[in-house]
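Incident log, support desk, overnight shift.

02:14 A customer reports that sequence design results differ from what the structure should imply. Their input is reproduced verbatim below. On-call engineer (initials T.W.) acknowledged and began investigating.
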């Protein structure tokens, strides 16, 4: 759906960014802005800034930034129109029903049409499970101990025998082959055409946090391979950006999540009362999945299978979870393989005890590592401690690293000083301390260009923060003095707003639909402005910035090759004279009150 800029501006005005961000991030006021831990990357010290006056946010750590719409897109994994609609609903704004251009319709509707196909497929599978044709599949689920309420809550279904059942059903609903081919629900056979991907399988609908079906998993009935089959990635389904069961787990509103491996593990855990359980979707845990979990919890219990593959998966997941800012612990399920088996045999109470006894994830890594060494052999023991020293280097916070160092030293009866020395040696080994100086001539052009861009960004930020200087600045700095591309486009928009008497950074950010453009614009609005004491110093700094921009625009070598052209040579001479005139004029006036 296309929305006009007026509508977008109204949505931004009616949704204060501090209020919206505060529902996801704990903010503390510091001067005129608010600060908190960035929800988009792992950090220990707050570098995530929210500006009430600019109605925008910016992370000085990872560079994330934008308006209230950008934030909603990122935090909820929404598209631009979806974020606008969610914020409009939050503010009680009724959005107009309007038709878009054919190109916009095609772009915006593909996602919604695929979601509609998935919804219809989910209804079909759901019906079959409860039909005579699904008796065996239903018996399989109840035989696994699942009750009707939990079967219904997860929308479980059945894909019957035959490879054209779903295809025939959806064709009757009016869906065309081109769209069905993009849904991931069918395979194409040269002779027979479209064939159902899922058949004779129990179906597990995969839903996003808005309870929309984005994909499916299927478990074969009887013998057959593969045992589990998942939807391929589509326009609406990215495995690495979603988690099975999160749509239900987030409503548990607990401070922790339990992550396991399979669909049945999640469903069994929910039925047993552990509604905070989720699973990755047939892939190793990704950074995007960890960041998605971070929206809803501060602690994660890893509950992967207890076999070799599960241990390997846990060892891969732990650093990702820690880097996302989680407190991370590992649940011991021995003697059972997975949570489903554990719950069936020992019950919920015993699982709660195992959660209480869950092992610190770092100690778990060390314990698993220990099994590869013979600690009675001096060489093996030394290598073991070197491995620990390397693991300790992952902790960026020195206090946290020292705490773990002391804990490991106590556990394995080694002096903290000796282990600390190993850590230092590992650090020196990890850092390439041989520094080679590059010739200054190689860096000169880059430094000049970086300084030029930085000056332009600084001017735009200054205009944004102190719009009163515009009437004086515009006499000297024109939009053509900014670099081609984003900076010139941004300068044009800012100048247009200032000509109309006000500046609205959030509206400018929201006028760009692409998330990357919004991030770049937000970074410009948060460029560091020279913050000297009130009085002559700031006035002088602003004048120097004007002259820097003019010099870069008019006089910098390489900005305009004259190639002997008399007119171009004369133009450069005139620009130099004008530059000297402005330089002299600025000495005798004040720009800042």
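02:41 Re-run completed on a clean worker. Output:
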């Amino acid at each position: 759906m296309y929305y006009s800029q007026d509508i977008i501006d109204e949505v931004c005005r009616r949704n204060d960014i501090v209020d919206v961000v505060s529902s996801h991030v704990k903010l503390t006021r510091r001067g005129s802005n608010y600060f908190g831990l960035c929800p988009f990357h792992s950090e220990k010290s707050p570098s995530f800034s929210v500006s009430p006056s600019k109605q925008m946010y910016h992370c000085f750590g990872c560079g994330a930034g934008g308006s209230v719409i950008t934030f909603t897109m990122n935090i909820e994994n929404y598209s631009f129109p979806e974020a606008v609609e969610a914020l409009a609903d939050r503010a009680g704004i009724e959005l107009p029903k309007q038709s878009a251009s054919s190109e916009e319709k095609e772009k915006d509707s593909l996602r919604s049409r695929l979601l509609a196909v998935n919804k219809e497929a989910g209804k079909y599978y759901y019906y079959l499970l409860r039909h005579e044709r699904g008796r065996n599949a239903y018996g399989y689920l109840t035989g696994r101990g699942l009750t009707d309420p939990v079967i219904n809550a997860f929308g479980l279904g059945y894909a019957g025998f035959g490879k054209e059942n779903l295809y025939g059903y959806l064709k009757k609903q009016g869906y065309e082959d081109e769209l069905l081919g993009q849904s991931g629900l069918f395979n194409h056979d040269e002779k027979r055409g479209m064939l159902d991907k899922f058949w004779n399988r129990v179906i597990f609908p995969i839903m996003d946090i808005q309870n929309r079906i984005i994909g499916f998993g299927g478990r074969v009935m009887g013998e057959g391979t593969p045992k589990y089959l998942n939807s391929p990635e589509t326009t609406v389904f990215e495995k690495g950006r979603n988690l099975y069961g999160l749509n239900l787990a987030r409503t548990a509103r607990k401070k922790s999540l339990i992550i396991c491996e399979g669909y049945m593990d999640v469903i069994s855990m929910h039925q047993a009362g552990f509604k905070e359980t989720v699973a990755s979707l047939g892939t190793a845990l990704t950074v995007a999945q960890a960041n998605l979990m971070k929206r809803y919890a501060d602690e994660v219990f890893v509950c992967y299978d207890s076999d070799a593959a599960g241990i390997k998966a846990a060892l891969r997941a732990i650093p990702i979870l820690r880097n996302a800012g989680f407190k991370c612990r590992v649940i011991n399920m021995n003697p059972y393989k997975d949570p489903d088996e554990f719950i069936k045999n020992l019950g919920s109470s015993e699982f709660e005890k195992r959660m209480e006894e869950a092992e610190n994830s770092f100690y778990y890594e060390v314990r698993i590592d220990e099994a590869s060494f013979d600690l009675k052999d001096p060489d093996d023991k030394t290598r073991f401690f070197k491995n620990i020293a390397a693991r300790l280097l992952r902790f960026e916070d020195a206090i946290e690293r020292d705490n773990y160092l002391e804990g490991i030293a106590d556990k394995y009866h080694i002096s903290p000083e000796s282990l600390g020395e190993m850590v230092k040696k590992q650090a020196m080994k990890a850092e390439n301390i041989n520094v080679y100086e590059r010739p200054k001539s190689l860096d000169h052009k880059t430094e000049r260009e970086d300084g030029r861009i930085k000056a332009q960004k600084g001017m735009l930020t200054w205009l944004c923060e102190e719009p009163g200087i515009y009437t004086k600045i515009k006499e000297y700095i024109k939009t053509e003095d900014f670099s081609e591309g984003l900076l010139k486009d941004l300068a044009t928009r800012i100048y247009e707003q200032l000509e109309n008497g006000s500046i609205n950074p959030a509206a400018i950010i929201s006028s760009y639909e692409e998330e990357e453009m919004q991030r770049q614009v937000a970074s410009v609005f948060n460029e560091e402005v020279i913050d000297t004491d009130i009085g002559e110093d700031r006035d002088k700094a602003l004048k120097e910035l004007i002259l820097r921009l003019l010099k870069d625009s008019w006089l910098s070598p390489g900005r305009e090759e004259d190639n002997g052209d008399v007119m171009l040579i004369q133009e450069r001479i005139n620009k130099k004279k004008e530059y000297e005139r402005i330089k002299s004029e600025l000495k005798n006036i004040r720009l800042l009150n």
